[in-house]
Amino acid sequence: AQDSCSQRCGELLSTCSCQVTCQSLGNCCPDYKEFCLQISPYSGSLMGGKAFLLENTAFNTSSVLTCRFKQKIETRGYIAKDGKAHCISPLLYETGFIPFEVSIDDGLSFPYSGTWLSVHHSKVSDEEKCTLLNETKWQYYGTPNTYGNLTLTWTHQALAETHVNIEVWGYHETGDSYSENWLAEWKYLYTLAREISNTGKLTFTPVPTEGNYSTWDFGILRITPSSYSDGQSNIPSLWSNEHALAWHLGKDFRNDPSAWATAKCMEWDRKEEKLPNFKEEIIDCPCTLAQARADTGRFHTDYGCDIEKGSVCTYHPGAVHCVRAIQASPQYAAGQQCCYDSTGTQILTHDSTGGSTPDRGHDWGSPPFMKPPRIPGFSHWLYDVISFYYCCLWSDNCQFYMERRPSSDCRTYRPPRAASAFGDPHFFTFDDLNFTFNGLGEYMLVESDLTSLRVQGRTQQGRLPNGTGAQGTGLSAVAMQENDSDVIEVRYSEDLNLEVLLNQKVLNFSEQNWMDLKGLFLHSTPDQNITVMFSSGSGVEIQGNGGFLTLTVLLPEKFINHTQGLFGVMNGNTEDEYTFRNKTTMPVHASPQQLFEFGANWAIENGTSLFTYDTEFLLNSFFYGEKHNSSFLPVFFPYEDPADPLVEEMVSLCDSDLFCRFDVLTTRSLQVGNSTRLSHHNHKLLVEHLEPVISCGWLDHPNNGTKNGTNYLLGSTISFICNEGYELTGSKERTCQASGAWSGDTPSC
After folding, report:
1. Is the model's pLDDT at 497 over the cut of 90?
2. Phi and psi dihedrals of 658, rounded to 5?
3. In a domain, 220, yes or no
4. Following DSSP, what letter does each residue of 192-228 receive, concatenated?
5. Structural domain total, the chain
6. Which residues form the AMOP domain (predicted)?
7. C-beta neighbour count of 57 within 10 angstroms
8. pTM above the 0.90 mark?
């Protein structure tokens, strides 16, 4: 009998396959498409309530559909008039790919399976949300000069009903902080408007709430079809943005918002006093904007203040760009934020309200999610955002907030080290040696015993303009994993499109360009720059360039003396850069032919390969073939023929860049030469930006005096002046020295 994929998706069976590679290999079980579900759309907010279509399934209209997420959360599915089946996504307290199964026999068996991508509430498109028109007005309602009507709009086609209800939900966390019984909950509070026509618009004048509803000051609105009961969970819904519920607060807030908020701010301050100090374990900020933008394995743009989007920095006046630490801190899951001014200098809260503030709750949440303080977005709102409203926006007590959330300076920040490979592959090691290795096969670029990090590269032969094979190779695929993380592979497909594979499955970035995966985060820009950020803080960046991949690996200092492979031993010493698997080394001035042997020594084996072999070509060339093709001999010294018309163009393009010249001559393509030249230039810039910078730390002004200057890096000088009637003792000015200490003595007036 033929095997079936029922409940076996992802497995290789004896007669056929239910693995995702079976479609390109042509060995799927006959019922693969029936049981291994493709869905559309594939992602939605973690708040749930979104319907998604189950493609290619032949359910009949009388089937009762049950969708079960994570083997425990059940939602009702439905079959539309056109016979197509849909599931409704549930409210989840986590982000990432969530497995689900479908039953058509009222929950007795769940033979169909797929995955749903749950994303941070800020990462869904505006069409999927209802919109608070003039959101600031909602969040300041009842404070001086803010009253009148509020308007809510939504895409009425998003809910296929004639009448809808609009509900208010609140978020809170119960139990003891940082204990087992600390729990997160979204709770239905009341219905704001019932059975109104689904026109896509509601305008109303908010009345103060009564009773204990007014204790809820952070929440969200939900629009649902009126046919469901109040507060019913996991039904078709449109949620608003999460927001400060000023508009719904009670009379005590309306009567004196500033006094109400001041009391709340003081209460928050007293609570903070008792909580553990998370600031001791968060990573320090990069010293300069250049460092912050180069350290892509550990820091990512904070979309609330982005230099590439015109630096609209509402919460950080004076800043041009902010970044957030990608990983939450180990014990308390706290977040770090770093902001910079137009000179590239860090802005500190001690000097300016535009300074960066660390977060008790990381905005993006952190694995394993599910419980405070790791709930994506909402934990952060509760500890770090609503408190900002209490202290800074609804009352004038911002100094309390800034005292609890002061900027970290950069005294303990250490930039990562970078290694790169590009073109007809030229390698720059972590210790900045460079060499060219033109092997054909699959090789270990870097591996580390510290976190079981492995980054592997596959090379393929270049093509000459006439279509024949060149005497050189280039990177065509890179695969990577750390500890037991997901496996990511970036490759050129046979028609030269860039593909990203997650555990062998090609990813689609049409809905989401940021994904929270197991042991890593993945980001893709519109022009397909792929960044993988592992939980250790190591980062891998890949982009397609003229038919070859350009790769950069960034490793934090803790990897020193813990790397091997083609990128060498990262320890600041070039003597041992060319270390073989058996720990013997080759001299730094080895010839290209000797280096070819060094490269060949780092070929991988099928047992340790992270690559996906899902076409006949890949199977024959790399799986069944040699991992290092010993019959392929590249050209080691390309000949510059003065009579060759290409040479003149090459000289004007490449100038003194030897890698650019090498690649033009081996591939006969100026385009390849040009992308090599750019990659080479970018690598040099990156290494420059990652140079360590010395900081002497923040200096205060003396009592009864002022200071001039807010730059605390090497060579900068701060001067001090006393107020009228006071005299200065100590140093009038102090300069940051190479030792990391300030010159002179602390001034006083």
Report:
1. no
2. -70, -30
3. yes
4. EEEEEE-SSEEEE------GGGGG--EEEEEEEETTS
5. 5
6. 257-405
7. 19
8. yes
Largest CA distance in the chain: 99
* Same-domain check for residues 272 and 290: yes
Asked whether residue 324 falls in the same domain as residue 235, the answer is no
Q: Which DSSP letter does residue 42 get?
A: -
Question: pLDDT tens-digit profile of 336-385?
Answer: 999 999 999 999 999 988 899 999 999 999 999 999 999 999 999 999 99
For residues 79 and 163, state if they share a domain.
no
Tell me the C-alpha to C-alpha distance, in Å, between residue 274 and each of 203, 268, 270, 694.
43, 10, 7, 34
Same domain, 275 and 195: no
Backbone angles phi, psi at 217, to 5 degrees: -115, 0
Contacts for 649-656: CB closer than 8 Å, 24+ residues apart: 653/677
pLDDT in tens, 173-191: 999 999 999 999 999 999 9
CA distance 367 to 431: 33
pLDDT digits (tens, 9 = 90+) for 128-167: 999 999 999 999 999 999 999 999 999 999 998 999 999 9
Residue 153 lies in domain? 130-255
Helix or strand (DSSP H, E) at 191: strand 183-197
For the four alpha carbons of 668, 603, 475 and 614, in that order, the dihedral sign comes to: positive
CA angle 476, 480, 483 (to 5 degrees): 170
The CATH number covering residue 490 comes to: 3.40.1000.10
CB 720 within 8 Å of CB 701: yes
Domain boundary pick from 206, 236, 255: 255
Assess if residue 3 is contained within a domain: no
Q: Which of 351, 382, 405 is the last residue of a domain?
A: 405
